[in-house]
Design brief:
The protein is of the alpha/beta class and about 350 residues long. The chain has 13 helices and eleven strands. It has helices at about 10-15, 20-25, 45-50, 60-65, 90-105, 120, 140-160, 165-185, 190-200, 215-230, 265-285, 300-305, 320-335, and strands spanning about 30, 35, 55-60, 80-85, 105-110, 125-130, 205-210, 230-235, 255-260, 290-295, 305-310. The two termini are about 25 Å apart.
């Protein structure tokens, strides 16, 4: 077993491993000077990538939140690409989906943290997340590395298909390369997350909400909390709360809302304004609101009961920062309850049966 590096649990160590995991995943694959992304292990020709009609993303558990796809009888065929995501590379559901996609003529790319895993061997191309061994059952650093690899592949696909100019590509690469340092800043919120856990560890239910690309982060925040602390938590799209979950909101159901804002992105600004309206509605129902917001936001602390700030970054990169306080919150909630953080009951690291 790898050394805990002075940390009391593997989960906390792996949360703090994330900046280096992102550096190891991102930096060898990009050149800022040339403004190019190099994915040598994709092994699918530029001609085939340019001819793609559709991309399908398949995953389970936390990896599903990185890709957001469902397991079903897929309408998949030639001219399509299926991306399969699994930390272990051995997840049975994901492997079955990969084999089904290949049988129907789709090319496949595997995203895995384990070299030479089943899913990597059977794929047409592979993108390894160089996050290092993940021992704790709750996935943390593999999740952020998976999101980084997906973003890298999106850049690579845009590069191959000629979808944006060199300077725009350089901007995207620079923002991605800046991410590990920003994540180190987010880790400094650990004491705040521990204080929050002291206030809330006796609560039995939580609602996590987020809009658009922030919804999967709300879902994973809820998953982390329930799998290690055994507290019931539900992730839900913020805009859908009026269609059911709002009936449950009162002083006994804290609401965790992803309410960051990229002021350079009109869509992000619009979503932020809607989040503000939602928070006001939650407060009218006596809810206690915990907000994840962007540094410099002066409005959010006036609205929410507790605000944890993350640095400003581009809208599409912000999920990799937002998840970290939620990971820390789940960790400290579990510690306060005196539970086994790294080995929650009834769970295994790799789900090898369907």
């Amino acid at each position: 077993m790898p050394d805990k590096g002075g940390f009391p649990h593997y989960m906390l160590k792996e949360i703090f491993d994330q900046p280096q995991g992102l550096r190891d995943t991102i930096h060898p694959r990009v050149s800022l000077d040339d403004a190019v992304v190099r994915l040598d292990d994709v092994r699918i020709s530029a001609e085939e990538l340019r001819a793609l009609r559709r991309i399908n993303i398949v995953a389970s558990g936390t990896s599903r939140h990185a890709g957001m796809a469902e397991y079903r009888n897929p309408l998949i065929g030639p001219g399509e690409l299926t991306i399969v995501i699994t930390q272990s590379g051995e997840t049975a559901d994901t492997t079955a989906a990969q084999r089904e996609a290949r049988a129907k003529g789709s090319k496949t790319i595997a995203i895995s943290n384990v070299i030479d895993s089943t899913i990597a061997r059977e794929a047409d191309g592979v993108l390894y997340t160089h996050a290092g061994p993940e021992i704790s059952i709750a996935s943390t650093k593999a999740f952020t590395a998976q999101m980084a690899v997906l973003y890298l592949f999106a850049l690579y696909l845009g590069q191959v298909r000629g979808k944006f100019a060199k300077e725009k590509r350089r901007q995207y690469i620079r923002e991605l390369m800046d991410l590990p340092a920003l994540l180190e800043t987010v880790l400094k919120t650990a004491p705040e997350c521990e204080r929050l856990a002291e206030k809330y560890y006796r609560v039995q239910d939580f609602l996590f909400v987020g809009r658009a690309i922030h919804y999967p982060i709300a879902m994973d925040g809820a998953l982390k909390l329930k799998e290690v602390s055994y507290i019931h938590a539900e992730g839900y799209p913020t805009g859908e709360t009026k269609h059911g979950p709002q009936a449950m909101i009162d002083e006994n159901l804290p609401v965790v809302i992803i309410a960051t804002c990229d002021r350079n992105d009109p869509g992000s600004v619009l979503r932020y304004e809607k989040n503000v309206a939602n928070i006001r509605g939650f407060k009218q129902q006596s809810a206690r609101v915990i907000a994840i917001a962007t540094e410099g936001d002066e409005q959010m602390p006036e609205l929410a009961d507790h605000t944890i700030f993350v640095p400003h970054t581009a809208e599409l990169l912000s999920p990799m920062l937002e998840i970290v306080p939620l990971q820390l919150f789940a960790y400290y909630m579990t510690v306060k309850k005196g539970l086994d953080v790294d080995r929650p009951r009834n769970l295994v690291k790799s789900v090898s049966v369907e």
